[in-house]
Amino acid sequence: MGADAFVGFYGIKIELDPDDEDELDACGEETDPRCVKAKQAGLECHSGNMTDGEDYFLFIGKNLAWLGLEHDQYISYSPDSFNAIVERVNSQLKNAGFTETPALHFQFVGQY
């Protein structure tokens, strides 16, 4: 069993339908067309939910941190390295055809 975690991600967040098991499975396996397109562009994907039955999501972009008792305890980025990530991810998202505005996302992922 895992422990609660906190993810930091730069990119886009797509809300998923919690009742669409096929979509949830495809995003988890990264076979969803959005994941395939993202991976081809050199982007990372992460899908999950906050707690059982709530806030299912798909992140596309760059995973910056996965923090928790069973994960990293600390991570940092210099302004220059973070700015380079932002520029690279923005370009990759655009080249892959994603039109959503990228942002810095912080998401709690609770174990249940």
List keywords for this structure.
112 residues, alpha+beta, 4-stranded antiparallel beta sheet, 3 helices, 4 strands, 31% helix, 37% strand
Explain this structure to me?
The protein has 112 residues and is an alpha+beta fold. It has one domain (5-109). It has three helices and four strands; from the N terminus they run E-H-H-E-E-H-E. It has a four-stranded antiparallel β-sheet. A hairpin with a 2-residue loop joins strand 2 (44-51) and strand 3. The model has no long low-confidence stretch (mean pLDDT 90).
Give me a quick take on this structure.
This protein has 112 residues and is α+β, with helices and mostly antiparallel strands.
CA radius of gyration is: 14 Å
Which parts are unreliable, with pLDDT below 50 for 5 consecutive residues or more?
A: none
Tell how many strands the DSSP assignment holds.
Answer: 4
Main β-sheet, spatial strand arrangement = 2-3-1-4
Averaging pLDDT over every residue, what do you get?
A: 90
Shape category? flat
Based on helices, strands and strand pairing, what is the structural class? alpha+beta
Number of domains: 1
- The CA-CA distance between the termini, in Å, is 9 Å
**Count the helices. How many?**
3
Order of helices and strands: EHHEEHE
Helix content: 25-40%
Query: In this structure, how is the largest beta sheet organized?
Result: 4 strands, antiparallel
